[in-house]
Amino acid sequence: MDGPRPYTLTLAELRGLTQREVELPIACVEGWSKSAHWTGVRMTDLLDRAGAPPHARLRVVSLQLRGGYRVSEMSHGQARDPLTLLALRLNGEELTPDHGYPARLIAPNRPGVLQTKWVGRLEVLS
């Protein structure tokens, strides 16, 4: 996480942090939506650890090397929403590569294409 107090976490360390469960849909721009149970670390907890100011926006960067959706940005309201997670599990199982292993963004009221998969870095934006 890049921010006022930058830090790095391994996947094992992420798994060791307090895990939250939320039920949120994936809403595809092609018109379908499917609800799922997600488990991961609340984004607000990660932002607090980085010393992010309350109104800071967030940039989520994928491990994907190219593509139109490898980077997404979130308003402070979306990033601080208690339902927004850096998800590690889907319906009780570890994420598969198709669903964004090792970690993906899941947040309420965002199109599926903006629920960044294969998250490699989070950046606090002022």
Write up this protein.
The protein is mostly beta strands and 126 residues long. The chain has a single domain, classed as Sulfite Oxidase, Chain A, domain 2 (Alpha-Beta Complex). 13% of the residues lie in helices and 37% in strands. The strands form 2 sheets. Strands 1, 2, 5, 6 and 7 form a 5-stranded antiparallel beta sheet that branches. It has a 3-stranded antiparallel beta sheet with strand order 4-3-8. It is globular and about 40 Å long. The model has no long low-confidence stretch (mean pLDDT 93).
SSE order and pairing:
Blueprint: H1 11-16, E1 20-27, E2 33-42, H2 43-49, E3 57-62, E4 71-74, H3 76-79, E5 85-90, E6 93-94, E7 104-106, E8 119-125
Antiparallel strand pairs: 1-2, 2-5, 3-4, 3-8, 5-6, 5-7
| Count of distinct strands | 8
Uncertain runs are none
What proportion of the residues is helical, as a percent range? 10-25%
Indicate the proportion of strand residues. Answer: 35-45%
Domain count: the total is 1
What is the rounded Rg?
A: 13 Å
* General shape: globular
CATH topology: Sulfite Oxidase, Chain A, domain 2
Biggest sheet descriptor: 5 strands, antiparallel
Order of helices and strands: HEEHEEHEEEE
**CATH domain class:** Alpha Beta
Separation of the first and last Cα atoms: 14 Å
CATH homology group: Oxidoreductase, molybdopterin-binding domain
Return the CATH architecture: Alpha-Beta Complex
- Write down the overall mean pLDDT: 93
